[in-house]
Amino acid sequence: MNNLSILYLHGFNSSPQSLKAQLTEQYLAKYYPGVTFYCPQIGASPQAAIKQLEQLLTGNSEQNWCLMGSSLGGYFSTYLAEKYQLKAALINPAIRPFELLTDYIGRQQNPYTGEIYMVTEQYMQVLQALYNEKISKNRYLVMVQTGDEVLDYQQAVDKYQDSQVIVQSGGDHSFINYQTMLPDIMAFFGLPAHD
């Protein structure tokens, strides 16, 4: 694929410094140096995040985009994949974060960046407005681990049942041994296997 660009969306209270983002960037640099990797610090509010990500995608529309998303980033990736007809690889994706994150309403601090911000009721309403009840078939590669202590992996299995779903026993929300899945992700994006 010419001009392939991968946009990696980190999760709630995370950053481009997260381990999965770093491992992905290193893997691409080693095996697929022609692929452009984007992993921005996503805005703290859903409105800011989606506006920022849509500007990136539409401002570079000549590129062939594929999405990767972890946790809340998986939720945003699903919204963007449906809107722009893109392929997306999701790692332990959040399915209904507007329900999951109600415990976090109030003051938050991102442990990576130190940014302090507020999670409000409006934050949840905006998240809910991004929800896609129905999703396209064969647009997603979804990877979950049954030991995820944050999300119910079965929700993802049910939501993405018409997609490629990989369920691993055990693990946790960080997705243990994530780097071993990178060849599967790149194959899903149509990249040739490396030696």
From TrEMBL:
Pfam family, one: UPF0227
Secretion signal span: none
PANTHER family: ESTERASE YQIA, ESTERASE YQIA-RELATED
Entry protein name: Esterase
Higher taxonomy: Bacteria, Pseudomonadati, Pseudomonadota, Gammaproteobacteria, Alteromonadales
